[in-house]
Here is the input.
Amino acid sequence: MTPPIRLTQFSHGGGCGCKIAPNVLEKILAGTPFASHVAAAFPDLLVGIEHGDDAAVYKLNERQAVVATTDFFMPIVDDPFDFGRIAATNALSDVYAMGGKPLFALAIVGMPVDKLAHEVIREILAGGEAVAKAAGIPIAGGHSIDAPEPIYGLVGIGVVDPARVKKNSGGQAGDVLILGKPLGVGIYSAALKKGALSDAGYAAMIAATTQLNTPGPDLAELDGVHAMTDVTGFGLLGHGLELARGSGLTSRIEYSRLPLLPGVPELAQAGHTTGASTRNWASYGDEVELSAACSDWQRAILSDPQTSGGLLVSCAAESVDAVLAIFQRHGFPQACVIGRLEAGAAKAVVEA
Here is the structure.
């Protein structure tokens, strides 16, 4: 009997773990014309690629701006419906991270049509549709190609008040850092590929990666929220560094306060880590002051690529309770304070 086809058997890297490493991407973009001249040529482009923000934002008038983003990747799980849900949730997260509300989406589809049954591909698309329905938006079209690896994602289009856009460069010294979702998705995915992830672990993984980051627009309404991003393929340290660089401050993270998915420390200690985590650390490790008490497996958690990860919020100390209340109201009970921003060089410091 022929064994069933597993979606992940086609993936050389799954989920946000297949993103180009930060230092490689920086070299690719260095010196490109749009990197240096686009802001001056288009003054209504409020957010471009200057600081690695989550989405582009273009001002239409004094009250409205368009938020546009795209995100897609190869399977991180074998269940086609779950894969579609995860990919769609991850793509829409970038709209929420800018403080925007999604309006509609377009599908990005690349499939090995000679290897996957039409029913499997249809289930992937159905997963994306289910997430769009939960977000209250349509998938209004898209584009498909015949590809050697399954690829699925969305173009997300949203709207935001220009005065409420939350860049990752708006952090202020003294701000508190709050993380909305627990870490460890990459470690779970590595364990899943080796058959070492329990049913309970898989359920926790799907619950985290398919939870829409809906607190974003409400958080953007708070004057005390100064910056926001989501934690995805570059890991907590990578996206924390983007915030630190953009804001010109030091990001100080307290490892002991990090929310983790169940069993993640044990899986990391057993060696279930991703190649992307290693590439991430190689890309930015020289910008991190890591406590001597942090072991290699803890470092792997800090650089672990998160697929459809949580919002990372930089807010004034007096706004912490309001921020946590919004997360609680939207069903994010593990949201918590994980550190702060302080004056100093643009780098990350990790305390044990």
In short: The mean pLDDT is 92. DSSP finds twelve helices and 13 strands in the chain. The radius of gyration is 19 Å. The CA atoms of residues 238 and 303 lie 7 Å apart.
